[in-house]
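$ ./design --mode recover --in tokens.txt
reading tokens...
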């Protein structure tokens, strides 16, 4: 009987390295799917919880937040685009235009996990990342979020209810607090079997090695 490896993927849909890490995680899972079952849960983390409606110009935000020059930001973005492509995400060639608050996206992900299970939650996670990084459209526009829900094969009418009624706000806040109180301050952070922590956009082989260790211990 194959062991089950539980994965808590703490991340934000506005984090480019979270997309890279997720693509690499999926590549690793595909390599070892005959050796173990994998149960991936997406956990919320907001990079910009205080970002007001309308967001901020992405270049302006990155130069201010990290103290980088325009040239450094552009070089970093080119590097991330290349890594993302290797991981299965074709980022928009002009990059994301603005930085947004992502709380509504996290509420939808919580809803998908609660009402449809981890596989549908994973599908929605990928589509939300595609929305922001590949289509490069606004996360403040709920129509873009609903479009991601529709592409995921989920109930768009129910999703609209969730957004309009502020459903799952309390649950998402509690989950965010759980992980920040545990010391997680950067994403992606990947917790294996509630015990082992990997941080950053790990390459596929790092995940494979970690999984093999867990399989041997099971």
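writing sequence...
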């Amino acid at each position: 009987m194959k062991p089950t490896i539980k994965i808590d993927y703490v991340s934000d849909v506005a984090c480019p390295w979270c997309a890279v890490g997720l693509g690499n995680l999926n590549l690793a899972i595909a390599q070892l799917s005959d050796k173990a079952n994998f149960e991936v849960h997406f956990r919320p983390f907001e990079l910009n919880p205080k970002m007001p409606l309308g967001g901020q110009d992405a270049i302006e935000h990155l130069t201010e937040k990290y103290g980088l020059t325009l040239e450094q930001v552009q070089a970093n973005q080119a590097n991330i685009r290349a890594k993302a492509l290797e991981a299965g995400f074709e980022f928009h060639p002009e990059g994301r235009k603005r930085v947004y608050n992502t709380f509504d996206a996290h509420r939808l992900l919580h809803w998908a996990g609660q009402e449809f299970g981890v596989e549908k939650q994973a599908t929605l996670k990928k589509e939300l990342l595609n929305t922001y990084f590949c289509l490069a459209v606004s996360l403040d526009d709920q129509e873009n979020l609903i479009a991601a829900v529709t592409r995921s094969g989920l109930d768009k009418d129910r999703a609209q209810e969730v957004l309009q009624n502020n459903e799952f706000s309390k649950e998402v806040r509690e989950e965010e607090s759980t992980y920040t109180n545990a010391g997680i301050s950067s994403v992606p952070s990947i917790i294996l079997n509630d015990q082992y922590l990997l941080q950053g956009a790990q390459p596929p082989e790092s995940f494979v090695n970690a999984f093999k260790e867990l399989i041997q211990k099971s």
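exit 0
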